[in-house]
């Protein structure tokens, strides 16, 4: 009992992590899920978008200029810039698994034994296997999301520890006491780990804010009474000393946590800006500043003061509704996200109604507002590869689902006290676990499908490159610069799952829903005869990207070189416009005449 009270004032993180890692069921489900979800990707090499300019990013420092300094500095210690797919992919899976464990410990510090270990296992499994991660995992070094998820979780653990230490201090010294040095250190540690997470991918700031609000919401859901003022003396005496949540000062505690969170976030943003300046100066990267899209908050917020900003915001909100709502009909990760949102909303509303808890009613929409706040910053609907919050929200929905099922069945057992009803309750719990197992299975299947499509795209690209190189080497002087024009189309048979055809029943369901808001809304995602573009990254081509990356086709030439074909990129940018105009009447690859020698350079037209 004493140990339990201790963990409520200063969280026993070592004990919680040891309990999670030492549980065979938890680790078995998590490791099996990670193997099923990423096994194909780890063992099947592909070269895709951002793989060819890895030296430009990590050796020259372009990635550091845009604020993603963690991998740049890490490359100074261990070799990352060279293309080594198995090693980096496998390391990322290990880090994601570690991140899932830390996130589990974070929520365990709130729910504790109110959720069985199976619930934490499926939280971790749903998080790790979320197919939306495949949208970013195919990029080189996965944009550092594995380190980002882990750092973000550790940062929130520091915030949780700060919250518990402040609560303990208030209990012993009064509400007016100033935070002591250890508490300030914990808050500073939270800011530092958030700074590291943002140094991997700036969208982790969004996840951190949303995660902090979900943590506070979890506390409200776990509360067992309405408020301090409503307790009678009799109930106060009968209440266990080690109750999960101490209600006195909870409202003040929420304000304190939000204020501390704002301070930690501000400190992390300042540290990020300073780090960019320091790295730029120390490594002499000033010459790259014109080559990169700067990602400072002030520059990204500039769209809000432009003419027509309000109308643009309305359209952004409509597009967000389509991406993260309507596409649930066709895209599994969005469907799971919507289902989790329903579970989170229902459980929260039950808490609001039964506990008359206004704070829970406030925290719920605020958490989702924080999750989608990037659209207000960037001035566009959040891309799937930047939606790092979504896997955590899906996992959070799993936690609340298990919490609700166990809570209701336990209440029913206590009320009836019949052996037959006890068996029924165990059956209900078993069905709930079976439902979660089906979700994890489907996510692993979906994740593997997208990785398989990525491999098929890569094989088709290699076949195309080999054929073009053969034609060039046979009939042309390959010492001349080559300019690629036109648009390469991935065979539709490979990427058809990334689209919803116009005759599909899913299309009509989506169309009916969007027409309620805007009759032309869904049409904005039409892609010619292919249908509605649903999955984003799976439909992108490394050849088409390499043709215009960094304002030239040098990256496509590198892609040729990585497959044994030596070509020369055109260094004269002005010739690209001339070549595009010249190629308008040329046949498209693979028709005869798609390659033309213009004397000073060669045109290859897709």
UniProtKB/TrEMBL annotation:
TM segment ranges: 25-43, 86-108, 120-140, 205-227, 248-280, 329-352, 358-377, 389-406, 426-445
Lineage: Bacteria, Bacillati, Bacillota, Clostridia, Lachnospirales
GO MF term set: transferase activity
Pfam families reported for this sequence: Glucos_trans_II (PF14264)
Protein name per its UniProtKB record: Glucosyltransferase domain-containing protein
Signal peptide: none
Keywords recorded for this protein, A-Z: Membrane, Transferase, Transmembrane, Transmembrane helix
């Amino acid at each position: 009992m004493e140990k339990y009270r201790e963990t409520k004032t200063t969280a026993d993180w070592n004990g919680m992590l040891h309990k999670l890692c030492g549980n065979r069921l938890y680790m078995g489900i998590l490791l099996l899920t990670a193997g099923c979800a990423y096994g194909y990707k780890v063992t099947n090499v592909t070269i895709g978008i951002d793989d060819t300019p890895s030296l430009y990013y990590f050796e020259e420092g372009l990635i550091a200029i845009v604020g993603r300094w963690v991998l740049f500095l890490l490359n100074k210690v261990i070799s990352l810039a060279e293309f080594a797919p198995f090693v980096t992919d496998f390391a990322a899976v290990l880090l994601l698994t570690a991140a899932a464990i830390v996130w589990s410990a974070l929520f365990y510090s709130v729910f504790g034994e109110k959720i069985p270990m199976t619930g934490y296992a499926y939280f971790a499994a749903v998080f790790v296997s979320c197919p939306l991660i495949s949208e970013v995992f195919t990029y080189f070094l996965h944009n550092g999301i594995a380190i980002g998820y882990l750092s973000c979780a550790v940062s929130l653990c520091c915030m949780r520890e700060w919250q518990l230490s402040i609560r303990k201090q208030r209990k012993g010294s009064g509400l007016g006491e100033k935070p002591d040095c250890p508490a300030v250190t914990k808050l500073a540690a939270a800011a530092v780990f958030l700074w590291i997470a943002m140094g991997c991918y700036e969208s982790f700031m969004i996840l951190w804010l949303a995660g902090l609000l979900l943590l506070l919401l979890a506390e409200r859901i776990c509360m067992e009474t309405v408020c301090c003022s409503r307790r009678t003396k009799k109930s106060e005496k009968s209440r266990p000393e080690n109750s999960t949540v101490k209600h006195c000062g909870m409202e003040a505690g929420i304000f304190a946590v939000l204020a501390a969170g704002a301070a930690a976030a501000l400190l992390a943003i300042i540290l990020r800006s300073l780090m960019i300046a320091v790295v730029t100066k120390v490594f002499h990267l000033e010459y790259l500043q014109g080559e990169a899209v700067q990602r400072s908050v002030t520059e990204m917020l500039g769209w809000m003061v432009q003419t027509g900003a309000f109308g643009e915001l309305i359209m952004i909100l409509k597009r967000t509704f389509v991406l993260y709502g309507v596409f649930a009909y066709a895209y599994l990760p969005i469907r799971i996200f919507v289902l989790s949102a329903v579970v989170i909303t229902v459980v929260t509303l039950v808490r609001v109604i039964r506990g008359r808890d206004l704070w829970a009613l406030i925290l719920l929409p605020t958490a989702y507002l924080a999750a989608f706040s990037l659209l207000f910053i960037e001035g566009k609907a959040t891309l799937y590869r930047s939606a790092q919050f979504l896997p955590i929200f899906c996992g959070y929905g799993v936690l609340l689902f298990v919490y609700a099922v166990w809570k209701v069945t336990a209440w029913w057992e206590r009320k009836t006290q019949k052996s037959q009803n006890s068996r029924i309750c165990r059956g209900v719990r078993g069905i709930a676990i079976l439902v979660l197992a089906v979700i994890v299975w489907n996510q692993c299947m979906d994740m593997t499908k997208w990785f398989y499509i990525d491999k098929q795209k890569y094989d088709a690209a290699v076949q195309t490159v080999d054929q073009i190189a053969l034609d060039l080497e046979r009939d042309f002087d390959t010492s001349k610069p080559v300019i690629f024009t036109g648009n390469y189309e991935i065979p539709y048979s490979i990427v058809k799952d990334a689209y919803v055809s116009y005759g599909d029943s899913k299309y009509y369901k989506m169309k009916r829903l969007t027409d309620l808001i805007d009759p032309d809304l869904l049409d904005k995602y039409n892609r010619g005869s292919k249908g509605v573009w649903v999955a984003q990254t799976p439909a992108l081509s490394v050849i088409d990207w390499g043709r215009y990356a960094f304002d030239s086709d040098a990256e496509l030439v590198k892609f040729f070189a990585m497959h044994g074909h030596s070509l020369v990129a055109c260094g004269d940018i002005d010739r690209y416009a001339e070549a595009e105009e010249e190629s308008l009447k040329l046949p498209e690859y693979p028709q005869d005449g798609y390659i033309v020698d213009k004397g000073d350079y060669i045109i290859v037209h897709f």
